[in-house]
Model the fold of this input.
Amino acid sequence: MSFSAIAVTPEAGNDAAEALSVLNSVFGLPAFRGAQEKIVRHVTDGGNCLVLMPTGGGKSLCYQLPALLREGCGIVVSPLIALMRDQVAGLHEAGVRAAVLNSTLSFEEASAVETRLLAGDLDLLYVAPERLVTPRCLSLLGRAGIALFAIDEAHCVSQWGHDFRPEYIGLSVIAERFPDVPRIALTATADELTRQEIVDRLGLAGAPQFVASFDRPNIRYEIVDKQNAPAQLKTFITERHAGDAGIVYCLSRAKVEDIASALTKAGVEALPYHAGLDASVRARNQDRFINEDGVVIVATIAFGMGIDKPDVRFVAHLDLPKSIEAYYQETGRAGRDGKPSSAWMAYGLSDIVQHRRMIEESTGSEAFKRVSLGKLEALVGLAETTACRRTRLLGYFGETLKAVKCGNCDNCLSPPAVRDGRVIAQKLLSCAYRTGQRFGAMHLIDVLVGRMTERVQQFGHDKLSVFGIGRELNEKQWRAAMRQLVALGHLKPDSEAFGALKLTESARGVLKGETEVMLREETPGSRIRSNRAKSRRGDLAPASGGAGKAGDPGLLGALRAWRSQMARSRGVPAYVVLHDSTIDGIAAARPTSLNELRGIPGIGDKKLEHYGDELIALVRASRTGL
Ligand code: ADP
Ligand code: ZN
Done:
């Protein structure tokens, strides 16, 4: 199908109806989401803009549709080759004339793409930034009809950001060389400084900024007390996300290997990914994660940037990320398709101690260390809060939720009991003080519960007034209390003294009884266990909508099997053939005619033409039990 037939110039008017009609016929989607419609209209009319939308918000359509609606080819600058490839594969499936221009092409292949561009035979062309800025490419673009420039992952221009790419700096040339072609910059990074840099470098001063809410309502946030992390993770996956695709983040390579093999032993399809692995092994594991159904990848944080997989059902952290920004970005890789997903983290006091040490021992400047410690503290605050996690998370980014309780985080679903923790806090702080502020959690607990260890004897701590004053709590409860006092800022791990807990300035108010301390009530049983009991009742039901959970289970299985086979034979990821939501839609609606099938979101004209008959045959077969 050629889109030149439906392409209209901005002057043709009636943009809105035209845009909706292309949304429907090409992408099979019934309606725009959020600001998409406004953005599409603005860019189609020739305007520049900056789009800030969270991952999964639907940024691609914001430039893909205007590219189809305007005369000429849309040029998309994208930093990641794998991402370009998958986007183009998806566009081909929808019948859009798309191509890439990057270093993976041979000279002949690149020439063929260039010829198509000049002949007006392309709707969208994905170009690597370092290629775009070459004189050769700029001259090529100068001779072609260009509908727009879309600069994806635009935060890569920010030198202060975490994904800075020097080749992005050169992109200022676009505004200089093609001032009359609309530019749309897109990013999922919300912070103000980055935004300003994008505006400066890409020449977007005065252009409107479309800022969506950064809430990801389909992600359930959950942070549990770390005890036996591998066992907790295993339980989380097998009880809540069996058969689902997910990412597990660990800090070290060794831990990645251990966890991957422990999960494999437990029957979970898990693969390791870290910088120490052979490049070919890494590539193979990443490909399997992207292309197959239900693979779990266990990775260091190096994994994930540019992973466009829409059906990642969970992201689990076995170690604390370094900031709320990092936590938001990493957990954001779950549920791009909008379906229920989990962000699960196990965290403990040792995480705080370890991170503080890493920061203190880093070679960064004092200012850098101070900022890093502040970011760590904000994250610990999120982990220890007894209030809604989502409210806290978005609040950090300056966004206020309408409701105080989101109803989809652990604290909203099973509110933790809080109690007056003044006496507990005083006992703990006194114990740290009397033992000279030189000991870590373990020893302080021994003293509090009156355990006669070698160390206690060696230092004569059994002679202290604090020895055995804390028998009312068990070890686990004391650990929880310590973490919360650290989060509240009354205690501070001293990284120079191997995690010794020291009193802060604010501890004085607590010791004097002037400062209120509310602590979460830790029952002797773990939070995991209580979550598990709840999950049976359905309050914390499996967040996933994996196989067999919607529609007819037999048909769903058949559709998934068909999709896997189709994906393999076409050499594209399964989600490029059909999204999970489309599969679920078919299983629920059981269409028996092409007309009915056309009504399922995700089925556009091309997919109907390619797959319609086979899909209907599957529905019919499952109905008649054949
Ligand atoms: P982003 O680039 O912002 O992370 P994508 O453009 O990849 O997000 O879109 C995320 C998911 O949302 C995709 O599965 C896409 O098909 C879906 N989507 C986008 N816009 C719509 C819409 N208007 N209606 C239904 N689904 C949509
Ligand atoms: Zn909540």
